[in-house]
Design goal:
Shape of chain A: elongated
Largest sheet of chain A: 2 strands, antiparallel
Strand order of the largest sheet of chain A: 2-3
Order of helices and strands of chain A: EHHEEHHHHE
Oligomer: homodimer
Structural class of chain A: mainly alpha
CATH architecture of the largest domain in chain A: Orthogonal Bundle
Radius of gyration of chain A: 28 Å
Chain lengths: ~160, ~160
DNA sequence: TGTGCGCCTTCCCATCATGGGAAGGTCAAC
DNA sequence: GTTGACCTTCCCATGATGGGAAGGCGCACA
C-alpha cells in the first residue's frame, strides 16, 4: 500500500532537483527518506508536499535556515500566525533592502552612462566615475606614506598610532 | 624616490581589504606587487589608484570578471567610450533584473502577509500560500506513481518515456 | 640590546545554494 | 541478456569574502 516514487520522480513532482533533495536530506532540512532494499530512496506524497513547500519558500527567496523554521511552524498545530507573519515580514524587509541596494547601484551607473557619449572616442565619464578622485599621484604629506630611494635605507615607515586596523 | 606603502596601508587607502588585495593578485585581476627583501608587498600610488578603481567597480556591483575587462579598457588609450558604455548598460540591465526579481518576491510575500491576521491563532495564509496546491495526497492516476504493498512485489515503476529530465 | 606588539607572509577552511561529473550499482523493457 | 536510464556516494566548482593558524618581519621604546 502507499504511493511511492523514486527521487527523480519526486524531483519532477516537487520541482526540487534530485541533487538538492539529497542535499536537503543531508543537512537535515527534510527527514531522511525511506530506502528500498536496493538503497534507492522512496518518496510518498507527503514527502513531495514538503519538498514543494521548500521549493516555494526558496522561490520567495527564503534562505534555507529560515525555511527550516518555516517547516517547523508548518508542522506545529499550536503555532500562532503571528510567528509566521513576523518571519515573513523580516524576510520582506531583507528582500526590499537588497532590491533597493541593487537599484541604487543601477541608478548611479545609469547616471554615469547617461553622461557617456558612447561613440568611438576614448573619453568616457563612466571610467572617470570609477576613478573617482583621480590619482593622488605625488602625495602631499608623508601621512601613511614613506619614501624610499631605490632599495636602500628604509627610514621610518608608519605612524605608530596603535590599533590602526 | 617613490612613495611606497605596505599592504595594510594600501588597504586603508584603497578601501580594499588586505585579504582581498592578495586575492585579486592571486587571480591576476591586479598585477603582482613588488616585494621588499623581506617578502612584504610594496604598493605605490598607481597601485592604490587601481585598487580604488576596483573597489568602486565592486561597489557598483560589477563582478570581478567584468572588472577585469573594465581595467583593460581603463588602461587602453585606444578604447572607444562605446565599449565601456555597452559594458555598463549590460550591467545595469542585470542589476535591474535582479532588483525586480527581489521586489517581486517581496510583493508576493507581502500579499500573503497582508492576508494574515498575525494573531495567536494557528490559521495562516502565509503557510497556506507556501503549500500552494495542497497535498496531491491520493494521486488520481498512476502517472509517475506506483503503488506498493508494504515491501513486497515491486511492479511496473515508471513510464518508459525517454529523456525524462 | 632586547623585548614586545603589530604587521606581514602563506595556507586551509567556511560561507550559500547549486550543479557537474566520476565510478559503480539497479531496474525494467526489449 | 543487453541496453540505457536511473540510482548511489563522493569530490570539486562556483563568487566574493572572511576567519584563523603558524611563523617571520619591523620598529619603537625601555
Amino acid at each position: 500500500m502507499g504511493i511511492v516514487m523514486n527521487i527523480g520522480q519526486a524531483a519532477d513532482a516537487s520541482g526540487v532537483s534530485a541533487k538538492m533533495i539529497r542535499h536537503y536530506e543531508s543537512i537535515g532540512l527534510v527527514p531522511q527518506a525511506d530506502r528500498r532494499d536496493s538503497g534507492y530512496r522512496d518518496y510518498d506524497p507527503e514527502d513531495v508536499h514538503r519538498l514543494s513547500f521548500v521549493r516555494r519558500a526558496r522561490d520567495l527567496g527564503f534562505p534555507l535556515e529560515r525555511i527550516r523554521v518555516l517547516l517547523g511552524l508548518w508542522g506545529d498545530p499550536t503555532r500562532s500566525s503571528a510567528e509566521v507573519k513576523a518571519l515573513a515580514l523580516t524576510h520582506i524587509e531583507e528582500l526590499e533592502e537588497k532590491a533597493r541596494h541593487l537599484q541604487e547601484m543601477a541608478d548611479v551607473l545609469r547616471g554615469l552612462a547617461d553622461a557617456c557619449d558612447g561613440d568611438g572616442r576614448p573619453h568616457c565619464p563612466i571610467i572617470e566615475g570609477l576613478e573617482a578622485g583621480s590619482v593622488p599621484a605625488s602625495s602631499p604629506s608623508g601621512e601613511r606614506l614613506i619614501s624610499r630611494s631605490s632599495s636602500t635605507s628604509l627610514p621610518s615607515r608608519r605612524s605608530p598610532s596603535p590599533g590602526r586596523r
